[in-house]
Amino acid sequence: MKNRKLWLFIIPFAILFACLLYFFLPPGPDRGNEAQAKEENRTPTCAVEKQPVVSDPQTLTVKPGEKIQDAVDKARPGDTVLISSGLYNEGVIVKRNNITVRGEGQGDTRPVLDGQKQIGNGIIACGDQFVAENLIVKNYQANGILVNGSDGVTLRNIFADDTGEYGLFPVHTKNVLMENNVVTRASDAALYIGQSEDVVVRNNEAYGNVTGLEFENTSRGLAENNYLHDNTSGLLVFVLPDLVRKETTDNKLVNNRIIGNNLENFGKPGSIVSRVPPGVGMVLLGPDGAEIANNEIRDNRSAAIAMVSLHTFFSDRATFDVGTEPENNHIHNNTIEHNAFDAHPAAKEFGFPAVPLIWDGTGTNNRWDQPGVESFPPILPDSSWSPLLNNAYVRLLAIARKFL
Q1: In whole angstroms, how far apart are CA 150 and each of 22, 69, 134?
Q2: Average predicted confidence (pLDDT) for the chain
């Protein structure tokens, strides 16, 4: 009889203790739960021709009527290919390290690489320390400039127009600088950085694209002082499954202007970006450790910032080979005005109300320091919350979602 009374006393306290552990202890690591996922490589490659850097670098000049590719093939590591003003209807492949491709002239007098919608890529490069600058690149089927697998990439002062899916496209790269470029009419992302690390994207303009700027499975990126306007969505930070690199971490998005991104989505049917609803200034899909600060975000019809789990975006998918939840992100001191004034039907399909700040309640230690900005849920965790309280709130939201 005494043992029974003892157990009647112990069991409620054990249940209470278990509930407290559930609500206040942080969850385990957010990792993929798909043992063997396919890995997709969507980009063409080229094999690097390894040669030593020359001690006497030279400049090889290309004039109208000549082929850029001929000069590139002659260039040694360390040389510069200087392109005179004029029209060049070709695609170029750069296979050596330490090659600079530079155009003469300024503004409309820069050399024009025009694919006439007959050529896939304007430039493909795979060597380290590659520089392309001062060019106009237009009318290609796939990409404007694609750099694959390089360590040390500079893309500067390039105007890319109607170049297929991507305008400027470094992938599997390190130590990337993209600055002072203007890109328009890309059917995916104007400025795209995929599966890369240590990236700086600054002082660029992107308009009339499906996405202005995208970090995908990329870490330690800085997006600063970019003007992203009149796209379907201004800025995306995604971690996606089925790619070689499995994380998107520690990116900074600061001092950007993200304005009036309400263009109808014209992405390739079936592509991931084709699912992005028009009118969302910034979409954060499962990143970790991002800082979003001091941006001007206004006039986006569906939302200013949406941060969601992969389970929300890929509601029909059960397993992933990447961590799915956004964690340790800090959103603060942004100027957010006149957003979510007329949510697009595609945005409404996700089930969120039309408010500037949207969070699906997933992930740990996310902080929103945006006082006075309407949000869903109406209460967002900020920097005054302890990690224990933050975690408990996430757990309560998870329970609420099951009954809504």
Answers
A1: 45, 19, 20
A2: 90
